[in-house]
Amino acid sequence: MRHPARLGIALAIALATAGCSTAARDSPAADAESATAASVTSCGRQLSFAKPPQRTVTLDQTSTETLLELGLQDRMAGTANLKTKIPAQYRAAYAEVPVIAPKIATAEQLRSAAPDFVVGGSTDLFTKDRAGTREELAALKVPTFVSAVDCPRRNPAGNTPFELLFSDYENLGKVFGAEERARKLAAGQRAAVAEAGENAAKSPAGKDRPTVVYLYSVFNGMPYVAGKSGLPSEMSRIIGAKNAFDDVNEDWPEVSWEEVAKRNPDFIVIGDLSERGRPGDSAAEKRAAMTEHPVVSKLAAVRDNKILEVPGIELDPSVRSVHALGMLAEGMKDLGYVR
């Protein structure tokens, strides 16, 4: 959030992502040695590189894990803003990279790492009171890359959030001379999305599609749910469901419990953020908040335990999001919404 399985799909996704990780760890960034000049566009800026960057800093966990998945840890001079534990498949590579800031990096912390390239998952990491603006860093001859998912207005119309995410892999592959790895990663995840999408053809059509509320966070007793512009709305479309808050054009709006009850979803998805450790982050705390609420507790989805749990970080666009998508597709079957 930018402000605050079984076999089958799950196995396919594991193979699609883990296979690339294994290859990357076996020969980290070897293909970058012979790479030539590259040019890509990122969030409205043309970036040109005479050679692959040697001292990249990633400003968030999403960007960090993408570069680790591509086997580029030896091209990284720092990471920041860890929200949850690094998955097992990345831990050895992550241990090789300095942590310049446990949370959001400041301009001073970023500059101390002497980066020649900075990668961030969202534009709000590049502000004067954080890492510095993209203009400020450009003046220092440090190019900056922002995920295409956070710049939808600057991307071709019709591109889905997943396709924008895959374009990040491919563009970063060009920058680092790791195009083949990036291509394999994107291809594997496209196949996983397509497999999850087989659900949509087997689920009820149109108005009969089940509605879902995605509960990301409970902060000061108030729920934060997925709105129209967040990845879960696209996930819902793929698996044959409808996000109950598609009329709210935000990623993760704060709403009231009464509004959740008013939408009366057929099922609820809880994003488990236990590792982040804030009050209300764990799946157990979110379940308790719903069962103890005088109105929400009466919803059939709560009474009948039509609740799915997925890792919360995977509900934001990242290299791990296809895993959550597979869990949701399998969950739809378990709940009986797929014929």
TrEMBL record:
**InterPro entries from the UniProt entry:** ABC_Transporter_SBP, ABC_transptr_periplasmic_BD
Which family is annotated?
Belongs to the bacterial solute-binding protein 8 family.
In its UniProt entry, what is this protein called?
A: Iron ABC transporter substrate-binding protein
The superkingdom listed in its UniProt entry is Bacteria
- Write the signal peptide boundaries: 1-23
Among its keywords, does the record have Signal?
Answer: yes
Biological classification of the source: Bacteria, Bacillati, Actinomycetota, Actinomycetes, Kitasatosporales
> Could you tell me which residue ranges the Fe/B12 periplasmic-binding domain spans?
55-339
Q: Which keywords fit this entry according to its UniProt record?
A: Signal
* Pfam families (alphabetical): Peripla_BP_2
